[in-house]
Specification:
The protein has 21 helices and no strands. It has helices at 5-18, 22-35, 40-51, 63-82, 87-99, 103-116, 121-133, 137-150, 155-167, 171-184, 189-200, 205-218, 223-234, 238-251, 255-270, 272-278, 286-311, 323-348, 352-373, 378-393, 400-420.
């Protein structure tokens, strides 16, 4: 009996996917689709091969790679159109949407995959991961544990359970779960990263560095571990470590609650005079409270890129930064240098208030830089960048009040835009 050539190619492509040779797998799968344009399994596998890529760093964020993820979504949708009852097509769609950071769509597709095949732990893992990224920590934990009922030794579900436990404040349980996975599979980079994050968010940054380093040794393309290693190295600085604890606390809150808290802080400062009238004992401290808030607000924006500048002197850390992070750190360092020169110049010219104004102006410009470069899409970066330029020139036309309100609008608005426009 002769063997269908397409089946041989599909088996070869599946093997290449397991070996993470994604480009080679794509080439094999396109051969099948050239002869069988509606082949469900080939479309689904090609989607998975396109959504996973050997490229790391800047190359993995290039426009070409973004287009590749769009193509991955298209092939997953073609697989579903070919056979709506096949769970693999919906899993591929969930994976592609997850890679595009469209987490609601990923959850929806993943749930459909689970409904069609409730015995595939991979589908539970992709849903749990999307929920984790959406800050639905309790739901992410529940789905991961459902996946572990299907496959008690599933690596991704175990690691997602560990990360969800950490986000819910159960750091000890998180470390135990990840260590259990490492006993089963010492080469699991995701488990090493999960242990590292649990240590990092408990303030144990040295232990975190060891685990992150091992995760990156096992999988140099692990973006999760790369970003964690940057945080762990920067946490060697006491001030940054203190600020990181605030970020961890905010990160554990529901997204709406976190935004509400930021706006609440702003309203509190904006009405500090009225509060002082109602509570006179606060009046001597109003200026100090306002100054502390300004310093804190600015530090939440520029602390990370500023520490990344110092990171470039670290023997291991200098290899971790991507192009955007290096550009941001260069711009922030340059603006702070100009600001300090303004302050020193004001001191020697007996115009200290003018020098302070120059320093504050440069700090605000630093926020504009971070806000612009942190936007997830080119269109949003252009929009925030133009708004930043308009607001930045207002003081030169005597519009100081509009400059202040504009700066606050960019600070809060860019955070909302970044959270609501994760997909592209």
């Amino acid at each position: 009996m002769s063997v269908d050539p397409s089946e041989t190619i599909l088996r070869r492509a599946s093997m290449l996917l397991e070996q993470r040779r994604y480009s080679a797998a794509q080439a094999e799968l396109r051969k099948v689709l050239a002869d069988y344009p509606e082949h469900t399994y080939a479309h689904a596998l090609l989607s998975l091969a396109l959504a996973q890529d050997e490229r790391v760093g800047d190359a993995a964020r290039s426009p070409e790679h973004m287009e590749q993820l769009v193509d991955a979504t298209r092939h997953a949708e073609l697989a579903i159109a070919s056979d709506p009852n096949d769970s693999l097509g919906f899993y591929a769609l969930a994976f592609a949407r997850h890679q595009r950071r469209d987490f609601p769509a990923s959850i929806q597709a993943g749930r459909t995959a689970i409904a069609l095949d409730p015995y595939d732990a991979d589908s539970y893992a992709i849903v749990s991961s999307s929920m984790l990224q959406s800050r639905q920590y309790a739901d992410a934990l529940e789905i991961a544990e459902q996946g572990l009922k299907v496959d008690p030794e599933h690596g991704s579900c175990t690691n997602l359970r560990s990360l969800s436990l950490e986000r819910l404040g159960r750091g000890g349980d998180a470390i135990d779960a990840a260590n259990a996975q490492l006993k089963r599979n010492p080469g699991d980079a995701g488990a090493h990263a999960a242990v590292a994050y649990a240590h990092l968010n408990r303030g144990e940054y040295k232990q975190a560095q060891v685990s992150f380093r091992e995760a990156l040794r096992l999988d140099p393309t692990n973006e999760f571990a790369r970003m964690g290693m940057i945080e762990a190295i920067n946490s060697g600085n006491f001030l940054y470590r203190t600020l990181h604890r605030y970020f961890v606390w905010i990160g554990r809150l529901d997204q709406r609650m976190a935004f509400g808290l930021m706006i609440g802080f702003y309203l509190l400062i904006n009405n500090i005079d009225r509060i002082a009238e109602a509570a006179p004992f606060i009046q001597p401290y109003t200026q100090a409270i306002i100054l502390a808030y300004i310093v804190f607000a600015l530090s939440t924006w520029i602390a990370s890129p500023l520490m990344n500048t110092a990171l470039r002197l670290h023997p291991f850390g200098r290899h971790l930064l991507n192009g955007k992070e290096r550009l941001t750190s260069n711009l922030i360092a340059g603006l702070l240098t100009i600001g300090l020169l303004c302050l020193i110049g004001g001191w020697f010219a007996s115009e200290l208030s003018l020098g302070m104004a120059g320093l504050v102006y440069c700090l605000v410009l630093s926020v504009f830089v971070v806000a612009t470069l942190n936007m997830p899409t080119k269109g949003l970066r252009l929009g925030v960048g133009v708004a930043s330029v308009v607001v930045a020139i207002l003081p030169f036309f005597g519009q100081l009040q509009y400059f202040i309100f504009g700066s606050l609008a960019i600070q809060i608005g860019s955070q909302i835009l970044a959270a609501r426009n994760r997909s592209f």
